[in-house]
Amino acid sequence: SNKDRATALVVEHALRAHAHTVTCASTGNVAASLAVGAAAAGLNAVIFVPENVEDTKLRLMLLAGATVIKVRTGYTRAFPLSRAASPAGAVRPRAATPGALVTAPHA
Q1: What DSSP assignment string belongs to 44-102?
Q2: Dihedral angle over CA of 97, 26, 31, 54, nearest 10
Q3: Nearest of 107, 47, 101 to residue 74 by alpha carbon
Q4: pTM of the model
Q5: Residue 6's closest CA among 27, 31, 40?
Q6: How many whole angstroms separate alpha carbon 28 and alpha carbon 32?
Q7: Residue 26 gets which letter from DSSP?
Q8: 5-28 pLDDT, tens digit each
């Protein structure tokens, strides 16, 4: 899919830049793709999703070891949060502990 191809480019860029973390905001498809791609490459993934993300996609992200942050106010708020929370050296697609699920209480 287009999302998987974009993930491959982001992961390749992260590896070439010697980054340790990739991050994104997504309603689910990009997030699942990035979580699996990052895990396969040995990278950390920090993913911001709307609170109502599909359970199947959420489970896949968590099983891949991503840190997933559910944002109550949805994707519109998740996107700037993912950019603001991005650690130095992280690579973001245009768009705490691995496997953790955090709900952003005031987002």
Answers
A1: EEEEEEETT--HHHHHHHHHTT-EEEEETT-HHHHHHHHHHTPPTT-B------TT-EE
A2: 90
A3: 107
A4: 0.79
A5: 31
A6: 6
A7: -
A8: 888 888 898 888 888 888 888 988
